[in-house]
Amino acid sequence: MPGLALLRPEPLPAAGARDASPVVVMKFGSSVLAGPADAPAVASDIYAEVRRGRRVIAVVSAFAGETDRLLAEARALGLAHDNPLLPAYVVQGEERSAVLAALACDRIGLSATTLSVRDLGIAAEGPGEHARPVALDRAALDRALDRHEVVVVPGFGAVAADGRVVLMGRGGSDLTALFLAAELGLDHVQLVKDVDGLYDRDPNADPGARRYDRANWAEAKALGGGLVQPDALDLAEARRLRVEVRNHADGHRTVIGAGSAPPRPVQPSGPLRVAVAGCGVVGGGALSRLLGDRRFEVVGVLVRDPARPRDVPGVAAADLAPLLTADAATLLDRAPDILLEALSEAGAGHALIRAALRRGVDVASGNKQAVSRDPAGLLALAEAHGARLQWSASVGGGAPMVETLRAARADGPVAAFEAVLNGTVNFMLERLGDGASFDTALAEARAAGFAEEDPSSDLEGLDAAAKVRLLAFEAFGVMPDEADIPRDILSADSPAVAGTRQLCRCRMDNGRPVAEVRLVAGAGDSLFAALKGEGNALKLIAADGSVVRCRGRGAGRWATAESLLADLSDLAARRLALRNA
Predict the structure, then answer these.
(1) Which of 29-33, 200-204, 294-298 has the lowest mean pLDDT?
(2) With bands split at pLDDT 50, 70 and 90, how would you rate the model's confidence at 523?
(3) What angle is formed at CA 57 by the lines to CA 102 and CA 213, rounded to 5 degrees?
(4) Residues 400/391, Cβ–Cβ less than 8 Å
(5) Residue 99: alpha-carbon gap to chain centroid
(6) Is 249 helix (H, G, I), strand (E, B) or coil?
(7) Half-sphere exposure of residue 50: CA atoms within 13 angstroms, side-chain side
(8) Tens digit of pLDDT for each residue in 105-142?
(9) What is the spatial distance between Cα 179 and Cα 161, in angstroms, rounded to a whole number?
(10) Integer Cα distance of 10 and 332 in angstroms
């Protein structure tokens, strides 16, 4: 097996570590996280921040009605409202929603954990149902942030000096989020809600109400009503914290801080029109989420055979049938604003992307074979027609590799990268290393939704080579030719040594990118050695010697669909901003 050392750029400067990614605090109330069915949408919001290079502390409220239900259960025993045992029972609502939100994050490949109210370490003083936070023991939180991208914590509760759990008043999850941000030295916090901001008067009573983009703390206290807990606003003003009240649906933010701007009339806008190409593992997963999202109207779904049964979780065949078409022109004639392209065939995907961009339709693609044919040409075509093209879902599944490379390149030149890029192959390699037969490993990969019915692109390294080409384009602005990338093929005759990985490397050599895709036993970096199953990872070495790493779930319906939906959300935000400009 050829040696990977042949591709190592010489000489490489001594590698160092980049600073830890910044932290953002996000709070999700019961209007957004109303029940378990809303957890995937919350995970999407969190994923969007992680792929921007941030670690997330997500503060959650109990599900809608849960606090009142728990209080009623306790009071049915005749307990008084000030019983010192009552708060510990009530905060189980927040702790339950925290665990379910973390599970939703795990499903899409994020590294997530939870802390209980006691573990979180907020100390509070005052009445048991309306205490005030006074200190934070950061030890458990810092450990969790060191080990995970996402830490989901319960709001509302804290711990008194005598060890009892206490509550921080109705709306206390706002206070939890602001106090954590202040104690961590952050300058802002996001409160994600189902309202579209702060108004100068009640918009439900007066259609002429105007909305603030920026308001100062005094205006928020006077006009906000129940928008933000008053105690939380007092803390924000005292600690000079900027509070971003963000609408979960359309992304509008009212920023509450020291400055202000006059409120403006609101321009009503309908949902964005979305077409989906492909209804397989990834396309079907994205479609199941889209059909329940009021921000979007699905206008059509391109499939090879509309009569074939489709696996779209939560969607009845009768509801899906009117959307299906086998004709690409018919799909685009339905005038979508955005196309989600998740076809499995390179030529058809490339042609459809070009046709959509020519019509000014934004495109988010998960088709690495199609995009890697000519990414520079596709971007030029998009710019010529006022459209945008995103392809994050084409590489890394739920691991934000494209965003990581773009951010690193913005900081300075990239020297080289190495990566594990094919979740199917590496899932199979792990099973082969455990002693499974080749046929068994492949069958299990198919059953898990990682391998297509025809897995040849994965097994022959073509899938990984296409991804290397796209990452090279992001890292260096140029791509190696596919024919110039040597590839090892995974077959029944391949070595089944435990710890074998399909490892990809690329570097610049005399102005041209040089890459390869190899099966390597004992991949050196602990980042790759620690990968399990379908995990993907990227190690980027900058010209100054610093190292950036990212990892995530590299295959499977929900991780890859999440990346596609994140691109959709970015494109939608731009479209809505243009509408409201």
Answers:
(1) 200-204
(2) low
(3) 115
(4) no
(5) 17
(6) coil
(7) 32
(8) 998 888 899 999 999 999 999 999 999 999 999 999 99
(9) 18
(10) 49
